[in-house]
Design a protein that fits this description.
By secondary structure, the protein is an alpha/beta fold. It is 43% helix and 13% strand. It is elongated and about 115 Å long.
């Protein structure tokens, strides 16, 4: 390594000096390694030298000096300008600001500078000075570079270990606080973690959102709308009309600068409307966030592109936060988003019909729930665009015929029950379980609903993971697959066990009122039981015996309209809850 003479060069009266700074994180701080401190210290050093003049500053903020794959724009510009001999010396705060990749990389950079007659000086490390003013600089350069590399390795390992501990506890360890939340610092098992809780809500909470609403107001509004059956696209339209500010609009100037620049390229609205530019994607992202239910989040599922719930070693969800909704309520919203809407949803016409819009009546082509047509007294599935392998279609059946056929088939089977028939006994057992749950205490019913929702959710996860098993290539990926599947299976088993316990407790003193139901010779007579029941009673009764009703596409035209409708309807009868869950085959290897 040669020393660089900084004396008279081609009759130049001044030594042209530049400064270079780097910081891994993006925010400006008051620390000694902050970009401003590095810049100011470098300029002060230059001003203290005789015949030196500061001619430029290069700076990379938010970029690692350790990762060799990180591109540092200003560092590359610095080296290019050195090759063009635009300056005579580079002043840095410390060698670690230039690189953390070790002695070899540091020496490589210094030698490249030296080839073009450029010296390197560190303001905080006197021995790093390759000008002819300091002959000892060469001897210590490699030593200091190596120490900087070792320090970075130790620091990186410490950070990785710390983050692993925080993640296991579900701490919100990095990134901006989620929209609508505030953060608290608490001690859990001797580890300080950051937990989330709903932010402050204004007195105008609920449906009255607007420009002055808090983020928590807006999140609560979105949840209320979803719970009322409004889809994400319609929710986004309402937020735009009400001028509710988006999550990006609530970010600070520096914090949201990069996000705003990226979003501007795909934004529909511009100017003053930009911060109110809600989309179905943003609304769905909020509704899908497990933190809404207090769960900690894990990695993004590559199949669904959603954040997974973080689970402990036994497969249980990690729940360190305070959510906007209970887990059962959040799971219910997920079912709604997945097209499995609960019974209280109304048809898009606003009315509540016997079979429409509560996911019991399914399209025989795409398996979607059917709703009431606007212009005809019929149930309809209208797939307006192709989804996967399913072509667009319209499938329709008469509301009058469907209601009558389903009700008559249920009553007919109930009237003909045979205590010696295993299928009838199974149906009665399943109906008794459901009837017991309907009459259970609110606390037990809530816990059972949550356990059933968790069971359904984890089974959906098992199904998705199983479908993707071929994508797990190599020993490491296969090990990750088996670990995740084992956690899901353990959680599934615990849910099934608890459901069995709760169902048994509720069923102990509960029996189906068969005599009361079968008292009328004709429940469909003008004064019969079915005629006296409203929509809620009819739905509750149907839910005891029926899981789903599938409507096949229209076939031939033989027979009456009623007969053609009868051929299209197939009923899936209920099964005991645990037996039903056990039908899912788990693949764990």
């Amino acid at each position: 390594m040669e020393l660089i003479a900084l004396g008279d060069r081609d009759h130049q009266d001044m030594v042209r000096a530049v400064t270079y700074g780097r910081q891994s994180h993006k925010s400006e701080t008051d620390s000694q390694a902050s970009p401003k401190m590095q810049r100011d210290t470098g300029i002060a050093y230059i001003n203290s030298q005789t015949n030196w003049r500061h001619v430029g500053h290069y700076e990379d903020v938010g970029l690692s000096g350790y990762d060799p794959n990180v591109f540092r724009p200003d560092f590359e510009r610095l080296m290019e300008d050195a090759r063009k001999k635009k300056f005579d010396v580079v002043v840095i705060y410390m060698l670690s600001r230039l690189t953390r990749q070790g002695a070899a990389e540091a020496l490589k950079i210094q030698q490249e500078l030296a080839r073009h007659g450029v010296a390197l000086v560190s303001t905080q490390e006197p021995f790093i000075n390759t000008s002819d003013d300091n002959p000892f600089g060469v001897a210590f350069f490699a030593l200091i570079a190596g120490l900087a590399h070792q320090e970075s390795k130790n620091k990186s390992k410490f950070i990785r270990d710390t983050f692993a501990k925080l993640k296991a506890k579900g701490s919100h360890s990095s990134g901006p606080v989620p929209f609508g939340f505030d953060v608290d610092t608490v001690n859990v098992d001797g580890i300080t973690i950051r937990t989330l809780r709903p932010g402050k809500m204004s007195s105008a909470a609920g449906d009255a959102v607007g420009p002055e609403s808090t983020p928590a107001d807006t999140v609560d509004f979105i949840l209320r709308q979803a719970e009322d059956g409004t889809n994400p696209s319609a929710i986004a339209d309402k937020l735009v009309r009400k001028q509710a500010r988006t999550p990006m609009a609530h970010l600070g100037e520096e914090e949201g600068k990069a996000l705003r620049a990226s979003a501007a390229k795909r934004r529909k609205r511009t100017g003053d409307d930009a911060e109110y530019d809600w989309s179905a994607t943003v609304v769905t992202r909020i509704l899908r966030d497990p933190r809404i239910a207090g769960f900690a989040i894990g990695a993004v599922n590559q199949h669904t592109k959603r954040r997974e719930i973080l689970r402990d070693e036994e497969g249980q969800p990690v729940q360190p936060h305070t959510g906007f909704r209970t887990p059962a309520q959040w799971y219910s919203i997920q079912k709604f988003l997945d097209g499995r809407a609960p019974a209280e949803r109304r048809d898009r016409t606003g009315e509540r019909t016997f079979l429409g819009s509560w996911n019991v009546l399914r399209c025989g082509l795409c398996d979607a729930g059917m709703t009431v047509a606007r212009t005809a007294q019929s149930y309809v599935c209208n797939l307006r665009r192709r989804v996967g392998d399913q072509e667009r279609h319209v499938l329709r059946i008469s509301q009058e015929f469907a209601d009558a056929i389903v009700a008559e088939r249920v009553w007919a089977r109930l009237s003909a029950l045979d205590p010696s028939d295993p299928d009838d006994l199974e149906l009665l057992a399943a109906a008794a379980e459901r009837f017991a749950v309907q009459g259970a205490s609110p606390e037990a019913a809530e816990e059972l609903a949550e356990q059933e929702a968790q069971l359904e959710h984890v089974q959906e996860s098992i199904k998705a993971l199983t479908e993707d098993r071929d994508a797990y290539v190599g020993p490491t990926a296969r090990a990750a697959f088996r670990t995740t599947m084992a956690k899901y299976a353990a959680h599934e088993a615990r849910c099934m066990e608890r459901i069995a316990e709760l169902t048994a407790q509720a069923s102990t003193s509960t029996r189906l009122p068969l005599d009361e139901w079968l008292e009328d010779d004709d429940p469909f007579a003008a004064n019969g039981l079915w005629a006296r029941w409203g929509v809620d009673d009819r739905r509750a009764f149907l839910a005891l015996f029926v899981d789903h009703i599938r409507v096949a596409p229209a076939g031939g035209k033989s027979g009456s309209a009623r007969e053609r409708a009868e051929r299209r309807i197939e009923i899936e009868w209920v099964k005991p809850a645990i037996e039903e869950a056990e039908e899912l085959t788990l693949v764990t290897s």
